[in-house]
Structure formats: C-alpha cells, structure tokens
Amino acid sequence: MSTIADNVLRVSARIDAAAHAVQRDPASIGLLAVSKTKPAEAVREAFAAGISEFGENYLQEALGKQEQLTDLPLTWHFIGPIQSNKTRAIAEHFAWVHSVDRLKIAQRLSEQRPADLPPLNICIQVNVSGEASKSGCAPADLPALATAIAALPRLTLRGLMAIPEPTEDRAQQDAAFATVRTLQESLNLPLDTLSMGMSHDLESAVAQGATWVRIGTALFGARDYGQQP
C-alpha cells in the first residue's frame, strides 16, 4: 500500500513532467495538499514528506486540525464554499482563501482580518463551466468583482480559482483551463495566481498556466466523508 510520502513523490514527478512538457519551471507551480476529511496525522505525514501548504473545505474540521498542528510551520488555504457566519474565523486562521465568489464575502474578510496578520491572499472562484451545482461567479461578473475586491484593505487579490466540469477528455480540460487563464489576463490587474487542477487533470492545468494545483486523492487516497464533523 502506498504511503503518503510515496504519493508526494509521484505527484511531484507528475508536476515536474507536466511543467517540462511546456517549458515551465516546476518551481513556479505550488502543490496544495487538500487534506479535507483526513486526520491531523495525515497532515503530519505529508509535512514530513516535504509539503507545507494545505487546503481545507470545512471550517470546523480545519480549525480542529490547526489546533493539533500548531508545532508545525504550515500555511493554511481555505478552498470551500464560504458562508457569511464563517468569515471571521476564516479571516483569523488562514493565509489564503481560494473560493471568494461575491463581494459581500470579500468585504467581511477584509473587515475581519486581524491587523497584526499580513493581508489575506484572495482568489476569486469563477464558475467557468456554468454548472448550477458549483460555486463561483459568472465570467461576465468577474471584471467588476475583481476591481472591487482589489480595492479592499487587508486583502491582496492574487488571481482566480476554478473547478471545471470533470472530464477525461484532454482537449476539453485544456479549453476550460485556458478560459480561466484568458479571463485573468483580461482583467488588467497585477495578478500572479491561477489555482486550478486536481488529481485527475493536473497535467492540463499546468500546461495552461496553473500556479497552484489542489491535490487530495492522489496524495491521501479516497475521501472519508464519515470524518467530517
């Protein structure tokens, strides 16, 4: 049975190969380990294998893990849907938020970010495939939303995040990720981040410019939703 350390090596090799295939520096692509539904011990194992950036979807679960792992120099990313009543805890306990899709949430994060912490890094989630079941702002609404968020204090707008409709068709994967990249380029803002690509499509995401790939299953195995509080 593969260990998390084995999986880290495999995923890192996939990222390196994908980057070299399009003449990109692998160091420009961050590996964000998605540890939702996995215990703190799994995060410790991943850290021991060289991972320090972790993404969480469920606030209460994440806060519990953070408490158990205060001895490790970890950077925490919130990547799940955000309810208004959760913004204060997110603003206080995370360095990145990848899933902002409306101005009200960004305003609350800005107001609630503690003054003694660095600005909160923000990605706007775009619903690039137009799926009713997915969070994310519509592409047509993106320019106004990005301009408004970029002006908020205590936040730094870094770029876009997307979860395209799953497909095994590489051409469709490439087209969706290329759309995200084009949307970002059209904003005319100083953005440096594209958070896109998961275990099944990271090669396509890297080819289209991803700077964070969000990898869960390929590192930790299948999700155990029974662990979610």
Q: How would you characterize this protein structure?
A:
- With about 230 residues, the protein is of the alpha/beta class.
- It has one domain (about 5-220): TIM Barrel.
- Helix content is about 40%, strand content about 15%.
- The chain contains 9 helices and 8 strands.
- It has helices spanning about 5-20, 40-50, 60-70, 85-95, 105-110, 140-150, 170-185, 200-205, 215-220, and strands spanning about 30-35, 55, 75-80, 95-100, 120-125, 155-160, 195, 210-215.
- An 8-stranded parallel β-sheet has the order 7-6-5-4-3-2-1-8.
- Strand 6, helix 7 (about 170-185) and strand 7 form a beta-alpha-beta unit.
- The mean pLDDT is about 95.
Comma- or semicolon-separated keywords:
39% helix, alpha/beta, 9 helices, TIM Barrel, 8-stranded parallel sheet, globular, 229 residues
* Helix percentage range: 25-40%
- Could you give me the name of the CATH homologous superfamily? Alanine racemase
Provide the gyration radius in Å: 17 Å
**Which term fits the overall shape?**
globular
What is the CATH level 1 assignment? Alpha Beta
Coarse structural class: alpha/beta
CATH topology, anyone?
TIM Barrel
Topology:
Layout: H1 4-21, E1 30-34, H2 40-48, E2 53-56, H3 59-68, E3 75-78, H4 87-93, E4 96-100, H5 103-112, E5 120-126, H6 142-150, E6 155-162, H7 170-186, E7 193-195, H8 202-207, E8 212-215, H9 217-220
Parallel strand pairs: 1-2, 1-8, 2-3, 3-4, 4-5, 5-6, 6-7
Helix pairs in contact: 4-5
What's the short story on this structure?
By secondary structure, this protein is of the alpha/beta class.
